[in-house]
Amino acid sequence: MSGGLLVAGTTSDAGKSVVTAGICRWLARQGVSVAPFKAQNMSLNSFVTREGAEIGRAQAMQAQAARVEPTALMNPVLLKPGSDRSSQVVLMGKPVGEMSARGYHGGRQESLLGTVVDCLEQLRSSYDAVICEGAGSPAEINLRRTDIVNMGIARAARFPVVVVGDIDRGGVFASFFGTTALLAKEDQELVAGYLVNKFRGDVSLLEPGLDMLKSLTGRETYGVLPYAHGLGIDEEDGLRVSLRGAVRESEVAPPVGEELLRVAVCAVPLMSNFTDVDALAAEPGVVVRFVDRPEELVDADLVVIPGTRGTVAALEWLRRRGFESALRRRAAEGRPILGICGGFQILGEHIEDEIESRAGAVDGLGLLPVRVRFRREKTLTRPVGRALGENVEGYEIHHGVAEVLGGAPFLDGCRVGAVWGTHWHGSLESDAFRRAFLRAVAADAGRRFVPAADTSFGALREEQLDRLGDLIEEHADTSALLRLIETGAPTGLPFIAPGAPS
């Protein structure tokens, strides 16, 4: 086998990421050497590869689904929004500057097509198949001229395209037809067909519509995937706790000890890598919820201030909404608080930022003896260490450099009383360390909570990826997908008017 496929979507959050991961896992289980690829990603959830490159977490998850090591080749362009109108551009894993949306789409994006095509070709030379994920919708006709992630890359690589539609939103047939009809003739020639996602009910009731869709478009539907809870792992757009979906207490696995442990995550602006709390949600008896009001902290045993692309903006948001006094009371009462990355910086005494916010000198919450200075170079590392008597692995993504002036050492940060801070994302995925941390939190919170001795976050992640592979194997036409990957889009596909100019 030698080829590839582009998984596009009628909308954002249609399920492109999980379908791509599912196809990668299914192919890997067949013994196919496969790699994921997304030319351009816009996300605040990112990951650091072993070579020190920053890529989208969705592509890292897809690489795990494919059972290969993630690299910068799999996501050559990453956009990290800093506001509604500008983003940091990360090229081949390294930041190259801030750019407005108009500036990026006005010229920079088009110039990157050669780079992303080169990355794709390098992957194709190393793997039997490359499964590409699109972004948003391929029918964003106002952006087609500079497109490098949907039909732009499909046409450059001559890859067939399968369009995923979220039927749970409604209007999926109109979305499939309209998406195809808005494309130029040369792009339509690559759209092989469709994949229905998140279907509830009796598939036989859908079949007449699928037959009509084929008669209207001349294209096959390659499967109807049922709605499945808890599959949104490491997504770009959605804010949800993935593994085991521990959001409502009624859905939480029974605790090992006598009580539940309640975790409140402050939903700060430009929140990044909120996937850090997935490992907490994976624990039986742990309830994780995102909050935006200080009164929601009252019954929380642990408050987490997560990472953010806008540390100073998040600090101002916390103050404006009344969180500062609530967090100060918690610290004075010895009730646990954990700050991760930007959240760690917010807990410090002082921030000097002429890079991210350009706000200059700003006072932090003063709950940890830490001073932070932002520098232009970004720290991108995969540290390993020990804390609470256990081995820990993590990854760092930050411009702010912390000077720790006191407190007890905690990873790269510190602890004062029940207030903890570190730059290390992903540290809670280290099972023994997570259990030790939760025992300390429960003791400080006065809870009779005992973490499960056998919870393996890595095993749970593998189970999730296998569930994605099962969805494809059991509900998609895998023989037809293999033919697409091997031979490309069928010839003679009809053109659907009106079509958009190329």
From TrEMBL:
Residues 6-237 form the CobQ/CobB/MinD/ParA nucleotide binding domain. The active site is at residues 341, 425. One of its GO terms (biological process) is cobalamin biosynthetic process. It comes from the Bacteria. Pathway: Cofactor biosynthesis; adenosylcobalamin biosynthesis. Belongs to the CobB/CobQ family. CobQ subfamily. This is Cobyric acid synthase. It comes from Streptomyces indicus. The gene is cobQ.
